[in-house]
Amino acid sequence: MSQDNAGYEESNPEDWEGEEMGPSRSQLRREALAIRYLAIEIGELSPAARAKLPLPEELVAGMEELDRIRHKNARKRHIGFLTKRMRNMDVAPIEAAMERQRQAARAHTQVHHTIEMWRDRLMGLNDQPDPKGALTDFLNEFPQAERQTLTQLQRKTLQEINKQQQAPDFDANTALRQPPSARQLFKFIRDTLTT
To answer: Fold for domain 23-89?
Structure first.
């Protein structure tokens, strides 16, 4: 053994296997950041959405306080305070409830996009030049839809679009305004898809 290593025994890496090393500093930092992002996400929720989460009373009070704080730096400090509190909590149930809310929001967005797609197809917009074919496709896919009401709404919407296009001040380079009947068509499609 050299003099530089005097007093130290050489350790064998195989001897380390039974020892628990604990999480690394980078792992602890990732966990702390995840809790901070969770606190920020909870803070951005509406009070009604937040009420659906299994939050402890002290966290509910802290989030209500956050709602009252308007100054950016003060909010940032308060998020830091809430993050420290949450590090000592079991956040798994909160995270699971948040994920359920995220999934519900994604599903709602997907339904909304589907409704918009059908409305645009029925109006003959966005590279969908065949409104009659769209009507047939819609009724084939949703046979429970009230055929006569849908036909009347589509006809009225197409007439209003045609009227806009025939107006003397119409510019082909500008987008069409949604006619009032387009909102009724959207509601009809939404009711058909969600019932």
So the answer is: Diphtheria Toxin Repressor; domain 2 (1.10.60)
Rounded Cα distance, 65 and 128, in Å: 50
Q: What is the 8-class DSSP label of residue 175?
A: P
Question: What's the 3-state SS for 101-144?
Answer: HHHHHHHHHHHHHHHHHHHHHHHCCCCCCCHHHHHHHHHHHCCC
Does residue 166 sit in helix, strand or coil? helix
Return left, alpha or beta for 128; rule: phi > 0 is left, psi -120 to 50 is alpha, else beta.
Answer: beta
Q: Do residues 81 and 62 touch, judged by C-beta distance below 8 A? A: yes
Query: pTM for this structure?
Result: 0.65
Burial of 44 (0-12, 13-18, 19+ CB in 10 A): exposed
Range(s) of the chain covered by CATH 1.10.60.30? 105-194
Amino acid identity, residue 166?
A: Q
Q: What is d(CA 151, CA 135) in angstroms, rounded to the nearest whole number?
A: 8
Domain 105-194 belongs in CATH node 3.20.20.70: no
Residue pLDDT, tens place only, 115-168: 999 998 998 886 767 889 999 999 999 999 999 999 999 999 999 888 887 877
Instruction: Give the separation between CA 191 and CA 67, rounded to whole angstroms.
Output: 35
Model confidence pLDDT, tens digit, residues 80-99 = 999 999 998 999 999 999 99
Cα separation, 23 vs 2, in Å, equals: 34
